[in-house]
Every structure is written in C-alpha cells, then in structure tokens.
Write a structure and sequence with these properties.
Elements (H helix, E strand, L loop, with lengths): L3 H6 L4 H7 L8 E8 L4 E5 L2 E7 L1 H6 L12 E7 L4 E7 L5 E6 L5 E7 L3 E7 L6 H13 L3 E7 L7 H11 L5 E3 L20 E5 L6 H8 L24 E5 L5 E4 L13 H6 L1 H7 L16 H8 L4 H47 L1
Parallel strand pairs: 3-5, 8-9, 8-11, 9-10, 11-13
Antiparallel strand pairs: 1-2, 1-4, 1-12, 2-3, 4-5, 6-7, 12-13
The structure holds guanosine-5'-triphosphate, magnesium ion and zinc ion.
C-alpha cells in the first residue's frame, strides 16, 4: 500500500479523513485495526501491516473499555517503519459499532466490531432455531445503524431445510434470510451481493455455528482457523479467540468474531420499534398515549391479542426486550452516579490536602 487510494479499499473515507486531519502531522498515519490480540494489535496502513501497541496516554486516559481500539477501528498511529511496528495514539470516532455488555459487576460496553456496514447473523440449521435470540441480534444491529442479514448455516446437516426457512420467515421480518452450507460452498455466491468495495461486514453468532467456516468459504478456503466439531462437545471452547478483519477478493472486508454465548443489548431505542413495528403501530390506537398495555381500558394491543391478530408470544418477547433495555439503562445510570461520586471524592481530597499544606 502506498497511497490513500489503497486505504480506501480498507474502508477509509471522508468521514475518517475529516477527523484524522486534526492529527495529520509528520510521523502520524491513519491505520485500521485488523486483528485484536490480548496485548497488541495488527494494523493495515499505508506502510503495510504493522504490529502495534497502545500508547500509555491512550491507555491511561481511557475511562472505559470502549475507548480503546477494537477491530475495525481507524486509529492514529506512529509507525516505526523499519521494525514494521507502530504505536497507537488515538482512536478516530466510530461511524457504527457492534457492541455488547461486558460481563462483570458493572455494565461495561465491549465493542465487538467497529465501523461495520452489514452484519451476517449466523444460526446453525442442525440446532433448534432460537428466534428470540435472532431478534436480539437484529435489534442490536438496527440500534447501531448496521444492516442485519440472517444466515442459516450447515444446511447439509439438516433434512427439513425448507420447513426451517419458512418458520424463520414467519418469525423474522424486515431482513433478508439466506440458507448456506459453507462446507459444500452452497448458497455462498448469493452472499457476495452484500460486499462492496470499502464496505465492512461482521459475522456474528454463537460459538460453533460456522462463522469462520463461512468466511473461509467466502475467501476460497485460505484463512480462518476452524476446529473439529467434536471439540464443541467440550463446552466453553471457542475456536476463534480474537477478532479479525480481512479483505475479500472482489472487494469489501469481513470481520470474524469469537462466538458469543449470550448477547446482551447495548443502547435501547430505535431498533425495538423497527423490529416490533406492528406493536408500536397498535399502541398508537390505545386510548392512553402512555398505555403500558397492562390493564388500561381501551388498550389496542390487548384487544389485538384477544382477537387473535397479535401473537401473545410476540408481545411477550417485545416486553422482554423492552425490560432488558430498561435494565441496562438503569445500570448505566448507577455507573454514572458512582463515577460522579468518585470524581467529587478526589476533588474534596485534593482540597483537603491543599488546606493542610497551607496550615
Ligand atoms: N457439516 C457442516 N459442518 C460445518 C459447516 N460449517 C461449519 N461446520 C463445522 O462446524 C464446526 C464449527 O465451525 P466454526 O466455523 O469453527 O464455527 P465458529 O462459529 O467460527 O465458532 P467460534 O469461532 O467458536 O465462534 C467445525 O467443525 C466446522 O467444520 C457446514 O456448512 N456443514
Ligand atoms: Mg470462529
Ligand atoms: Zn395499550
């Protein structure tokens, strides 16, 4: 790679350029995070591939994990060309991101993939399909301005593919659904229509559903590490341990992610109303504008359930998602309060110290 035109193949555009201009001084270069390891990163840059560490300043100034570089991020790097290394000094603002709640006592955002345009949400056809989980992934994508595409994998291991496809179509609306067998390279060609030069696709889904195998098939079997299925019986095993961004032949980029055992929603809002447009539409007809669809009179949602036009199961999952979003919002507030407290404690301590010095 020699000039910025090449960086465009990796997703570089005016959006990032505008932010990078603030840093554009001698010795600093834009680069995209291709691989995220535990302690360092692999970057794509004008100088080729570089192994990079975070600068101390970036690390110590970060108040939460989501401020650190994630795969797909555009970063400001100081390349050490001779050694093919670099130091990352800043993360450019993200256009979009796919994140989840990080396990731990306090809710923390973990960015699974940054600057993603489309997400392939993969479920395996040799297991029972979990539509509630698919809905959560969809809501997560919509909330983050990422276009979701449902991919049903391992068609070769399923003998009622058509029935499962119809069942999925009945449960999931508003998004494309594809059936593939990566192992047999079946249904793969149709996925290429989502790839465009400089657009990024992330592959998301539980461990073992065949995300890496799907990417291998898209890359003509040249890249990802896949393990034997027998290993999956041993619970807790993830084959893909880091997140990785690769250029796809013919244009576009793809990000492999380690399987998520559970995804938790991050940020509520728009995604839910888009996913449950029918319910939102119905609530407009409720007598009270703040109707909670519980025991209020003139509730159009309850009426629709009674008359059979709204599946009560669907209403239940709407409720569940809504509660979950509320829960995370509350948890976030607690965290904000704690941080505020900590800040004031520091200020009072310092003030006290100063006073002591005076006397
Ligand atoms: N029969 C069949 N097996 C498949 C197919 N796709 C994947 N597999 C197998 O399923 C197992 C898991 O595949 P992976 O691609 O590693 O799954 P993954 O989703 O990347 O898993 P993690 O990296 O742990 O999140 C491997 O043994 C694959 O060979 C398929 O289309 N058909
Ligand atoms: Mg994998
Ligand atoms: Zn109502």
């Amino acid at each position: 790679m020699k000039n910025l035109k090449d960086l465009r193949l990796y997703g570089w555009n005016e959006f990032f350029e505008a932010y990078f201009n603030e840093y554009a001084s001698d010795g600093l270069a834009p680069a995209r995070v291709a691989v995220e390891h535990r302690n360092n990163y692999e970057l794509y840059s004008e100088y080729g591939e570089l192994i990079a560490e975070k600068s101390g300043k970036l690390f110590y100034n970060a108040t939460s994990a989501d401020e650190l570089p994630a795969v797909g991020d555009w970063v400001v790097a100081m390349p050490i060309q001779k050694e093919k290394k670099a130091v990352i000094s800043a993360v450019l603002p993200r256009r979009t991101k796919f994140s989840r709640k990080k396990a731990g006592p306090v809710t923390e955002e973990q960015v699974v993939a940054a600057n993603v345009d489309t997400a392939f949400i993969v479920s395996s056809l040799n297991q029972e399909l979990n539509f509630r989980r698919m809905e959560r992934y969809l809501a997560l994508a919509w909330d983050n301005d990422v276009k979701p595409v449902i991919v049903l994998s391992k068609a070769d291991l399923c003998d009622d593919v058509y029935a499962k496809l119809v069942e999925t179509q009945n449960n999931i609306t508003g998004t494309d659904i594809h059936v593939v067998s990566a192992l047999k390279n079946a249904g793969i060609d149709e996925l290429f229509k989502y790839f465009e030069s400089n657009k990024t696709i992330a592959v998301i889904g539980s461990s073992g559903v065949g995300k890496s195998t799907l990417i291998n098939s898209l890359l003509h079997w040249k890249k990802m590490k896949v393990s034997d299925i027998s290993l999956y019986k041993d619970k807790g095993r993830h084959t893909t341990t880091h997140r990785e961004l690769t250029l796809v032949p013919g244009g576009g980029l793809i990000i492999d992610t380690p399987g998520m055992r559970e995804i938790q929603l991050w940020e509520g809002g728009g995604g839910l109303s888009e996913l449950f447009e029918d319910i939102e539409q119905l609530s407009l007809e409720c007598k009270f504008s703040d109707c909670r669809h519980e025991s209020e009179p003139g509730c159009a949602v309850k009426e629709a359930i009674k008359s059979g036009t709204l599946d009560p199961k669907r209403f239940k999952s709407y409720r569940k998602l809504q509660n979950e979003i509320n829960y995370f919002e509350r948890k976030q507030n607690v965290r904000a309060q704690l941080e505020e407290k900590k800040k004031w404690k520091k200020i009072t301590n310092e003030a006290r110290k100063k006073r002591k010095e005076k006397f």
